[in-house]
Specification:
- The structure is a single chain.
- The protein is an alpha/beta fold.
- The protein has 9 helices and 12 strands.
- It has a domain of about 170 residues: Vaccinia Virus protein VP39 (Rossmann fold, 3-Layer(aba) Sandwich), CATH 3.40.50.
- The strands form 2 sheets. A 7-stranded mixed β-sheet has the order 4-3-2-5-6-12-11, sandwiched between helices.
- The protein is globular, with a radius of gyration of 18 Å.
Amino acid sequence: MFFSSLKIIPATIDKRGRMAFYTDISLVYDDLFPVSPEQRALFDSLMDDGGARSVADCGCGTGSQLQPFAVAGLSCFGFDPDPSLVAIARRKLAAYPKTRVETGSFADLPRLVSLPPDLLMCLGNSLVHVPQDEASRFFADAAGALSRSGTLLLQILNYERLLREGVTELPMIRASEGTVEFRRRYEWEGDRRVLFRTSLRFAGPDEPRIARNEIPLYPVYPEELWEMVANAGFGDIRFYGDFARSEFSPGSEALVCLARKA
């Protein structure tokens, strides 16, 4: 979700902790995770064909995925638990008076989303950052927050494939003309919890600076995701393998879900 001026601090390993890691990654988030043409096309379809006139983004990061809706004049609201990302999103979306961004977690959804949106998004594998029972509660809260016949758009990784193939490392991402490298490793602790280890490397004039972090993730598998969404009161549930709405299969890398509030 960006790139602002990056101050390189000569050091081999940065040990300032988890919040420092997110401050670091906020500087290069948009370069690492840009909004793809396929995402933009899907967003356009949800506005043109789906009739969305208001949007809420749960785990909005730097606000890049809200921006196309804000540019189109929709009422937009986003929230994210990280203050560094929220600060960037607020600056990015400041020119759009119908847009608001707050700091908050999934549990804050009922309190934060006061006006029912037509579209509620949860993208970027955000859902699996909370335990499965909290994920299930999130869908119930999402259904309660949405307008009548509102749409849910969700994207996570296909954890069924990752578990089946024993994947322990995701592809490295390079950004900012190769001066930034983001490495991601999985350490499986059974099938319900994964230790997500990341390394963010910034090139410097002398030595690179490396910021490391690790957090637990809580995989949600396709079958149980369907049950969570259906039990929360959604219908017309559709799974895709990417934002281009390719057919979802056991080998799909991602799981994109579209569902409509029943």
